[in-house]
Amino acid sequence: MPAIDPITTQVIRNALKAAADEMQISLVKTAHNPLIYEVHDFGVVLTDHLGQILAEGSGLPGFLGCLPSAIVSGLKVVGAENFSDGDVILTNEPDDTGTHLSDVVVYMPILYKGRLVAFSSVMAHWADVGGVTPGGWCPDSTDVHQEGMIFSHLKLYEGGKLNTTLERMILKNVRFPELVHGDMNAMIAACHTGARRYQALCDRFGADVLQASMEAVFNQSEQMMRRKVAEIPDGIYSAETWLDHDGIELDKPRKIKVTITVKGEEMIMDWTGSSEVASGPINHPFVETRALGYCLLKSLTAPFDPMNQGHLRPLTVTAPPNTVVSPVYPAPCDSYGYVGEMIIQLIARALSQAIPERCPACSYQMFGPYFFRTDPRHGEPFIFIDPVDGGGGAFPHADGPSALIFVGDGDCPNTPAEIIETRYPLLVRRYALNLEGAGKGKYRGGFGVIRDYEMLEDNILMQLMNENTLYPPWGLFGGDQSGVSKAIVWEGTDHEQVLTRRISYFGPLHKGDRVSARTTGGGGWGDPKERDPELVKNDVLNGFLSAAEAEKIYGVKV
Length: 558
What we know:
Blueprint: H1 6-30, H2 34-37, E1 42-48, E2 53-56, H3 61-77, E3 88-91, H4 94-97, E4 103-112, E5 115-125, E6 154-158, E7 161-162, H5 164-172, H6 177-205, H7 207-230, E8 235-243, E9 254-263, E10 266-270, H8 286-301, E11 315-318, H9 337-351, E12 368-373, E13 382-385, H10 417-423, E14 426-434, E15 448-455, E16 460-465, E17 486-489, E18 497-499, E19 503-509, E20 514-518, H11 533-541, H12 547-554
Parallel strand pairs: 10-11
Antiparallel strand pairs: 1-2, 1-5, 3-4, 3-6, 4-5, 6-7, 8-9, 9-10, 12-13, 12-16, 14-15, 15-20, 16-19, 17-18, 17-20
Helix pairs in contact: 1-6, 1-7, 3-8, 6-7, 8-9
């Protein structure tokens, strides 16, 4: 092993983080779909030659934990000896990548002086992969093959040469080829950025010094995480919840259960007790079940430390095969994200029994409309996917955040109204806080939003993402649960419809028709009667609460 020193080690660590951040910037600046360049529905990761995390950029937390698994799978499928300089590989198999087929992984081997030393990788949501519903998130598929094309570590470029046959096949089988082609090339460009930066560091320090330095960083991070885990009281902590249905068996709720065992500096998250694999597409591949466990543990213990492989070592995640959190091929999984949201919330709920001062109440569930038109005979094809922000769960020390994206999407922003109105035949009529539904408590949940869209053209179809209408976001330690998200179509007319269940191909909607998307708030934390009267007064003054409600709910006269 080459000699290393602490200063060089930290320079390398931060240089790799800067390289990952530059990959993210490259992707955002060159992507064609606002879901990528505005909402940041992606992840970027640099790994070593074994698929161990070296550095990651910002993006969806779950994606960042899934990309290394895709690399490890690629090493098995392709073989380390079969990677060449200039290769670009595509994969989206849920068993390897952890999500649904729409989230495509593009990765590139990084060679230095003929030796495989690292990988540069990007995962991003494509505008379409040719499944039964445009853009993915099919609410009622029964087989993964209904959900789109499956890529199993296919070389789009081999030795720097484009496989034009594969490229034509992909673009011919998607509904929005220009969008997909542009985003695919943006992902490739981001991978090239990471590869160039890694090779430059090899030129400066040597490949062996890079690897040895990062092994030292792994060990330091592992030791730090073990100290953090050891601060959590030993014990067994469980939590469970239910999802409304799987999209096929509409009267059959599905259970998700976690049991967390803390023993010294080790933690085990076990998902035994969760429902068997679902007939519909809510199944959540185990790779991301494990990745979300890593994310939650780190966010509750060491949120500001740049992620690397060492942070993961104190945690073991287990689940029996073929459940909603560990499906096996060919189980459908296009609507996997609803389970993912509850995985995150349940881990916090279970650990609130051990570290209540760090764990918030439940936030709102994933929600959002799609608007699309695919038949050019009815107008120019387009697709707009709008994950709508909502209310976060209350904290042990503060009210929950309002108008924030659901926790599984991390710090992702929304699509600005200006972008929507510039790119699509839609007008944003209203964007405001939704004062209904936030859970009451010593600290109340954050507020959701109301986002109203008006159709500016005819023949537009809609799809709706929603869950947990029967089992709303919970409060903690005496705090109230929150409400239910919904969409209202044709509000105020004789044919008004209130939609709470997932639905696809709703419509057609025509010029002048309106859709009101309304997200709920987060759960409350603590007994409402213990709320600081000054906070109650401020809510009344800000119009969040009436004087009568203040007295009835909180016992405070204003």
